Amino acid sequence: MVWFCPAVESDEHCRGLFHCREVITDAMSNKAIFLCRYGATGTAWRGTRVFRAATGAMKRLTLTFDNGPDPTVTPGVLDTLAQHGIKSTFFVCGNHAGRAPQRELLTRAKVEGHRIGNHTFTHSIEFGRSTDPTLPEREIGETQEILGDLADQDRLFRPYGGGGVLGNSLLNPAAVEFLCRGGYTCVLWNSVPRDWELVTEWPERALTDIRRQDWTVVVLHDIGTGAMDQLPRFLDAARAANVEIVADFPDACVPIFRGEKREGLSDYVATTGPARD
Ligand SMILES: [Zn+2]
Predict the structure, then answer these.
(1) Are 42 and 64 within one domain?
(2) Distance of CA 85 from the midpoint of ligand 1 (Å)
(3) Separation of 232 CA from ligand 1 center, angstroms?
(4) Residues 37 and 71 in one domain
(5) Are residues 42 and 70 in the same domain?
(6) What is the pLDDT of residues 102-124, one digit of tens each?
């Protein structure tokens, strides 16, 4: 049973949600005494503002960092993730993943247990807006070759999507064919807090997404906007909200898994030729 504790309505501890390890109800006083998993204790009136009954399932959060690595930003991101004991995925572009400083950072990320995914070669063309049959080989295949041993074993691929918009311009039939034939796993997202423009406010946006869904896959960018200065604050808030931070992905964000098409894939594939706006 999850109780909303009146003592923390100020949105401090656990954002007001106590996932109780133990609840002792007192029929006489109609109160419940709880002990939450962070060790806090308190008293709540039974039946007042019960948030959600009985499931006790923690919300999940998967962190992804796109368009990096950046020698001035990514080391700090890796330090923060290590301090918090969190594993994540870095989706990188082929046109700079092969350069020395970026390669070194990707090696460090891999050694520290993070996953490395393919985020196209040029990060400039949505497949659904192209009819060029050679585009998948150039954008996906060449990047995978550059990643080599650094690439995750599930051959993670995230398409380029302008502004983070999900839709049928992300892929086209040729790209789907290429991904399936190559055993790739296509990873999308369900939270884009626009960290590239909301450089200090993005954590609140992401936390709103976390509250409205069970498993959030957030797109962040380890590039030089200053947004990653907020990462420690965001992770503290997510932890305080009792969110479990994981390195895998919900099925709904994975329309192709190890080369196998999943239900819902067609939402992301242009039917014929370039997608219409
Ligand atoms: Zn991107």
Answers:
(1) no
(2) 25
(3) 22
(4) no
(5) no
(6) 999 999 999 999 999 999 999 99
